[in-house]
Amino acid sequence: MPKYAMVIDMTKCAACQACTVACEAEWGLPPGEKFTRLEEREIGKFPNVRREFLLIQCQHCDKAPCIEVCPTGATYKREDGIVLLDDKRCAGCKYCMVACPYQARVINHEKGVPEKCRFCYHRVEQGKKPACVSTCIGEARYFGDLEDPNDEIHRIIHQKQAKPLRGDLGTKPSIYYVR
Amino acid sequence: MKLTRRSFLKASAATGALAALSGGVMSFERWAAKAAETGDVKLVPSICEMCGTKCGIIVKVKNGRVVKIEGNKEHPNGKGKICARGNAGMKLLYDPDRLKQPLKKEGDKFVPISWEQAFKEIGEKLKEIKAKYGPEALVWSTHPELAYDYEVIFNLAFGSPNLTSHAPTCYSPRNVAYKAMYGEVPTVDYGNVKYYISCGRNLVEGINVSQVLGIMKAKEKGAKLIALDPRYSNFAALASEWVPIRPGTDLAFLLAMIHLIIKNEWYDKEFVKNYTIGFEEVAAEVEKYTPKWAEEITGIPAATIERITEEFAKAKPAAVVDPGWHVSRYMNSTEMLRAGAVINALMGNLGMKGGLKFPKYKFTKVEEREGLWPKLEKPKAKRFDGAGGEKWPLAKGLGMIQMLPEHILSGQPYPIKAYIANHHNPVRSAGNSEKWIEALKQLELVVVIDVQMSETAMMAHYVLPESTYLERFDPPQIAGNAVALRQPAVEPLHNTMGVDDIIKELAHEAGIGQYFNFTLEQFSDQMLKPFNITFKQLMEKGVIALDDGKTEYKVPEIKTDSGKIELASGAFEKAGAKRVPTWKPPGVTEGNGKLRFLHGHTAVHTHTSTFNNEYLHALMPENVLWINTRTAEKLGIKNGDLVEVKSDYGKVTIKAKVTEAIHPDAVYMVHGFGGFSPYQKKAYKKGASTSFIIPCHVEPVSGAAADCEVLVEVRKVGGGANA
């Protein structure tokens, strides 16, 4: 069984949001509902200033707080590591939204359920990369299988010293960041 | 076969391919995925038009509806990647606010008119104007796209010299400098640069996908990227070093670089000896441009200029000053481009790995093709703007569209009575909106061809709706080492036409139909003939490579008169400049409460064309005014406050973004917002339009619009959300 993971190399991120729109188009999301979020911060004083970006989406945690708090079992984790939501079982209580330390959930106003990145499981099952990875114009995103020793994701995580976001929270995310 | 808009379905079905789902246990999500994949699905290879760079795309059509657009790996532009705008393309196709039928203005209102009637009435009017005032009374402006050759034929056949592009509001200074000095306009071997200097070239907000892919590869290999920009742009965030230069002074920085390179003999002596002329003249000129001198002007410490120059020269020949794109900013922009061109030559980087390169393939010029139309004659009249004439020899082929209102209003050098704009919205992209509106009102005939009701279209007597890029064919494209075709993914949703057919029909009614007795297939086959490729083959494959894609690094043929790079050139002397690049201050100076007004692109919008796209609109619905924290403090402005930005030409109100990431003497806004066409309901009056602030300027050497040569006063007019 594969164990899917992603690397986002922020040093190669163009902050262009191609990933955001590719994801919206892939899933036919209503405008404004985004599974990836570009955060920005400014550090320092002119002229010794810099701006930093960070892309955030569902981290597909191994110890996902959203699964722990879900009263109906609508949110679940597949054996391949992908965390999904079964809308039919979702009561719309939004506990998961509150529980997610990455604030990765967004409300779909048409369905009244809190949605999020699905690691494009339908593409992955066809041997394709998720839409955000496939479109990334900086080639800043990598997707692979941690169970496959020959997958280049091992080399990328190791070489680039990619680390999970807020590893200290103990959520064991499936996304590794280079910053 | 005559290709009509109706016959494409058959063609694109042939290109269709659908990946089958692999077997396995049918889980809930797999069932959902399979349900999403079933139905009539086809994949159509085509070319994006969400901006002008024309990346390859694969359009996924399900049950006759475009559901997804992805990059085409076979296409050199994008190599399988597309940006946010490209990904949002189907939202243009299905925009309810699109133009859906031809319109005619009656009184203050637009009313539907049939295509036949529109062509007939426009044709009659054109013939009448030509008979009364001569063919030069027609000005035709365009953002040149794949059907540009049709526009060339139309104008030459009609007899008008006034076909003109958006160049002066974009790249005129670059083209003028490099054509005169190098014989051609080069681009950068981005993927292999080792030391890259950008003078305001914002690679990740003015996006060309292949170039972004390239620069990221270079960065990963350890290239040093330097961003000269008064604003800490998204490219600065990516770069190794931000140089927060005073606006309009990049020229001084580059002249000091030349001074240092020559003084320290850091240049490639062999290359300079073998491939350039004029070195001694440059050396004499730059003696006075010391780093200390440049520090005074640029605000950048001499030590920084010295360090960057030394590091840069050590990386030669993979050391490049990017020629750039939108460089029509200052009165000294052409000098700045010339200085960069000198530095590139001193590095000997032309044709080298990580240096400058010329395009490998080109189509022949339409004027040189024969057989499908009667011989095309050069128009008798001179151009309305003087481009190519005695005063503006270097603006030849580029023109000065921003000066059209002036010429209409003055009636000089001759009366202009008709104006046709195709894929171009100068009322908002060529300075001073008020003046454009006033001038266009004077004309007897204004026709606009577009996919949506632009502000220029609002001024038209006739609005001719073009099919979007997802609904039409265009003549072929050359991209890198390949030829490619734009072809329809779906039939036109509305009563629209491809611009090729619009021009043809207009020609027939304007009395020049004999120049357009060919089909798009015949026209394209003629273009493709030198490559032994046919239109039909291209329809099937979408993209055809012309070689194995390998690069041979060597100095290419230099097509100047001397056969060498002309560091000193008499061409500039004829245009009123010196033979070598020289310091020239920018046109206006900040101070006494007046701030430099800067503007530029964002990664998620294009020019004035994408603001009604529902995905892109939701992503960035309005712009803000970047203003330095200390400058804002002095003016009593807090983050989010509503401010008025006022120049000598007009004013706008906009929210302030108080930031450390911009030079204290400058303010900045993303352009394209603040649309005032009520037909574009989402975009209408969202944010502020730069076009009310910017004058219709003209830079003396290239004829460029120098659209950052404007000072503004900023004052608070309302509290922000947090006030």
From TrEMBL, chain A:
Keyword annotations for this protein?
4Fe-4S, Iron, Iron-sulfur, Metal-binding
Where are its TM segments located?
A: none
Question: InterPro entries in the record, alphabetically?
Answer: 4Fe4S_Fe-S-bd, 4Fe4S_Fe_S_CS, ET_IronSulfur_Cluster-Binding
PANTHER family, from UniProt? PROTEIN NRFC, PROTEIN NRFC HOMOLOG
- What is the name of the protein in this document? 4Fe-4S ferredoxin
A Pfam family = Fer4_11
Q: Where, if anywhere, are coiled coils annotated? A: none
Q: Where is the 4Fe-4S ferredoxin-type domain?
A: 4-33, 49-80, 81-110
Q: Which GO terms describe its molecular function?
A: 4 iron, 4 sulfur cluster binding; metal ion binding
Q: Which domain of life is it from?
A: Bacteria
UniProtKB/TrEMBL annotation, chain B:
Q: Which domain of life is it from?
A: Bacteria
Q: Where is the 4Fe-4S Mo/W bis-MGD-type domain?
A: 41-97
InterPro entries named in the record: Asp_de-COase-like_dom_sf, MoPterin_dinucl-bd_dom, Mopterin_OxRdtase, Mopterin_OxRdtase_4Fe-4S_dom, Mopterin_OxRdtase_prok_CS, MopterinOxRdtase_cofactor_BS, Prok_Mopterin_Oxidored, TAT_signal
Which key words tag this protein in UniProt?
Answer: 4Fe-4S, Iron, Iron-sulfur, Metal-binding, Molybdenum, Oxidoreductase, Signal
Under Pfam families, the record lists:
Molybdop_Fe4S4, Molybdopterin, Molydop_binding, TAT_signal
UniProt signal peptide: 1-19
Give the cofactors, semicolon-separated: Mo-bis(molybdopterin guanine dinucleotide); [4Fe-4S] cluster
Q: Name one GO molecular function term.
A: oxidoreductase activity
Q: Which PANTHER family match?
A: TETRATHIONATE REDUCTASE SUBUNIT A, TRIMETHYLAMINE-N-OXIDE REDUCTASE
Q: Which family does it belong to?
A: Belongs to the prokaryotic molybdopterin-containing oxidoreductase family.
The protein depicted here goes by the name Molybdopterin oxidoreductase
Which species does the entry assign this protein to? Carboxydothermus islandicus
What lineage is on file? Bacteria, Bacillati, Bacillota, Clostridia, Thermoanaerobacterales
